[in-house]
Amino acid sequence: MAATNSSMKDHSPNSQKEAMIKGGQIISRVMAELIPKIKPGITTLALDEEATRLIHQFGGELSFNKVPGYKHATCMSVNEVIVHGVPNTYVLKDGDVLKVDIGAYFGGYHVDYGDTFYVGNNPSIEISNFLEVGRKTLQEIIALAKKDVRIGLISSTIEKNIHGAGYKVVLDLTGHAVGKQLHEEPLIPGFLDTDIKNTPRLKAGRAYALEVIYSMRDDCISYANNDGWSLRTRKNSQSACFENSLFIGENETIILVN
Fold first, then answer.
1. Which of 19, 55, 96, 158 is 20 to 30 A off residue 115, Cα-Cα?
2. Predicted local confidence at residue 6, as pLDDT
């Protein structure tokens, strides 16, 4: 779940790492079962209900319903809706682009994950290229994420890749630290507005949700669907979001959802 630029007793780094590894494993198992169900004819609410069932089945708790006022396991955002789409009775159709954002809560810690899917078969070259840029950018920033790396390096890499491909970084939606709370400081923007040396460093013993949030033609957002949550591009441009959570150690970075 994107940030807007707007229960274990022991909270030591080791217990946090172990809890978050388990939370990531839960999401991995849920997504392995959920992805084959993303087909034309299913509603986003049915996908969310299945995600809820699976999170509980695999021993976790819902993460997103701990955000005040939100009651679902996932956000399901279709086409121009970028993030925070509320699952509903919308029936997916061939050619839709679906963003699935999902969290799991285990041992007092949140893990946050997101992916984007083409619904149906045979996407156009335009859509395939659009989605591939985001996937590759997430892989690239994950490879950069290590102890003491400046967040600005991650931000500038997202900006370079997305703008270099002719797309737009969505300015008001960011990655973020994650842990006891779903959204923690610092935020991790998809663009750089200062010198890299002025940006915070990634710290060992903390986790971060890295997000690549972008659209084909628009970097601004507005509310959609009259639900108080869904955010779309202002010009109704196709959008995508790719996200994973990482735990930063002294000598290694653990990708939490595989």
1. 19
2. 56
Residues 82 and 89: their CA atoms lie apart, in Å, by: 18
Stretch 69-98: mean pLDDT: 98
Provide the token pair at 251: 């000598």
Q: How far apart are CA 215 and CA 87, in angstroms?
A: 21
The C-alpha atoms of residue 165 and residue 229 are separated, in whole angstroms, by 29
C-alpha dist (Å) from residue 116 to 134, 146, 185, 187: 9, 25, 25, 22
Q: Phi then psi for 137, rounded to 5 degrees?
A: -65, -40
- Whether the predicted pLDDT of 1 surpasses 90: no
Question: With contact defined as beta carbons under 8 Å apart, do 20 and 13 qualify?
Answer: no
Q: Which two tokens stand for residue 124?
A: 């156009």
Alpha helices per DSSP H over 79-236: 125-144, 151-164
Closest CA to 2 of 225, 140, 161, 182: 182
Q: Is 15 left (phi over 0), alpha (psi -120 to 50) or beta?
A: alpha
User: What pTM, to 2 d.p., does this model score?
Assistant: 0.95
Selection from 111, 112, 162, 106 nearest residue 137 by Cα: 162
**Alpha-carbon distances, residue 107 vs 45, 52, 231 (angstroms):** 27, 18, 30
* 90 has pLDDT over 80: yes
Q: Which domains does the chain have, with CATH numbers?
A: 3-255 (3.90.230.10)
